[in-house]
Amino acid sequence: MRSVWFLIALVCFGSTRGEDWPQWRGPSGQNHAAEGATAPDNWSDDSGLAWSTPLPGRGHSSPVVVGQRIYLTTCDEQAQTQSLLVLDRQSGELLQQTVAHRGKLAQRIHGNNTHASPTAACDGQHVYALFHNNLECWVTKFDLDGQQVWQKRVAEFSPRRFQFGFGSSPIMVGNLLVVSTEYDGPESGVYAIDRGTGEQVWRAERPESLSFSTPIPAMLDGERQLVMSGNDKLAGYDPQTGQVLWSTSGSTKATCGTMVWDAERNLAFASGGYPGSFALAVRGDGDHEVVWEESQPRCYEQSMLLVDGYLYALADNGIAYCLRGEDGEMMWRERLDGPVSSSPLYVDGKVYVTNEEGITFVFRANHENFELFAKNKLGDECFATPTPVDGRLYHRYAKSVDGKRQEYLAAIGE
After folding, report:
1. The dihedral sign for the CA sequence 270, 299, 406, 90
2. Which of 53, 226, 344, 394 could bridge across to 215 with cysteines, CB 3.0–4.6 Å?
3. CA–CA separation, 237 vs 333, rounded Å?
């Protein structure tokens, strides 16, 4: 399994290093820290932090860490700007804020969304930020210091029925950047643009209906492919051409979570959503039939986590689940505190997940029973998923300061 992840990371990210976290769900695409990595178990507002830096604006994107830099996106709704932030990895100093867009923000979005929710991507030479602006999706390419190189329109994103904003993150595959724009309009699709020029290389059509999942490069049936759920189906695509490799009925209308996969057992897993909740497994070969499907856990916004053949999930209401991947049997469930929007993270045998009130639960990745290590509170609010590198967790959160909401990025761990 480790060699498969290394191959995918090498092809996708080029010159990034093993301890970097270059895009949404990290180098493996499975939200696993590198083998041998560690992370702290205990912290608070007053202890266990190497630094905590105030951030301008508001966003739900997760930290991308490459080289000596950390990259985040943000939006200042009062100034009507969408920007890339560049911070120093060691000190947390805010080095650069570069405005990508001024004005033309969507007039209506979901209360749990922001105008800077997609996580950026970095290939070790450039940074790519995706913003929804002027009812369109735009990718802006920056150098590592945050200076703009180019900006390209990808597609229209102008939902008519549900105006909840945008949420899918850009994903690097080879020399391409892949963007999903599913909505109830004619340009709904998955798009791949050349990372060098920004020109479109391929487009795969998607149903004209709103969904938010990010496609992810997975290894199924010995073949590297992009997999995603949403709009009542599961599908795999050739990452270089956009050709549909397979498509199977399943899922529900709207999903937000990214699919996970088990290369050893040749299974892929999806969860959602709206209007009905589900978790399922689909076979990676043959007719790609759905092997099992359950109505729980209800993971609408979150992605699931796969560790050693078992699925760990935090439902919207804060109930933790462990399911056996091969047949969906529920191994255990435990009520924690919700609501939850952040996705679970795996580091050194432990699962980390943060709820919307800023409480991070740390429990053992053990399918036999639930074992809680710690319950840590930082700030008052969290929607982003933390990033594990350097023996630290880089954690985006918010709290009230003098009656006003203020966002921070913290390095948890000395």
Report:
1. negative
2. 226
3. 34
Kindly state the DSSP code that residue 168 receives in the 8-state scheme. P
Position 251 scores a pLDDT of: 78
Cα 386 from Cα 86, distance rounded (Å): 17
* pLDDT > 70: percent of the chain: 96
**Half-sphere exposure (Cβ direction) of 245: Cα atoms closer than 13 Å:** 22
Helix (H) or strand (E) holding 4: helix 2-13
Q: Structurally, how many domains does the chain consist of?
A: 1
Tokens of residue 297, six digits = 């856990």
pLDDT at 3: 42
pLDDT at position 252: 82
Looking at residue 250, its pLDDT comes to 83
The reported pTM is: 0.95
> Residue 404: which residues within 8 A CB-CB, separation 6 or more?
none
Structural domain that includes position 403 = 2-412
As a whole number of angstroms, the distance between CA 312 and CA 363 comes to 11
Residue that is written with structure tokens 């856990």 in the block: 297
Average the pLDDT over 227-255 and give the result. 93
Tell me: pLDDT of 10 over 70. Answer: no
Two tokens at 134? 């002027």
Is it the case that residue 414 has pLDDT exceeding 90?
Answer: no
* Tally of CA atoms within 13 A in the half-sphere of 263 that contains its CB: 16
Residue 159: name the closest of 110, 112, 123 by CA: 110
CA angle 56, 59, 65 (to 5 degrees): 85
pLDDT above 90 (res 354): yes
Could you give the count of Cα atoms lying within 13 Å of 360 in the half-sphere of its Cβ?
A: 31
Q: How far apart are CA 310 and CA 328, in angstroms?
A: 9
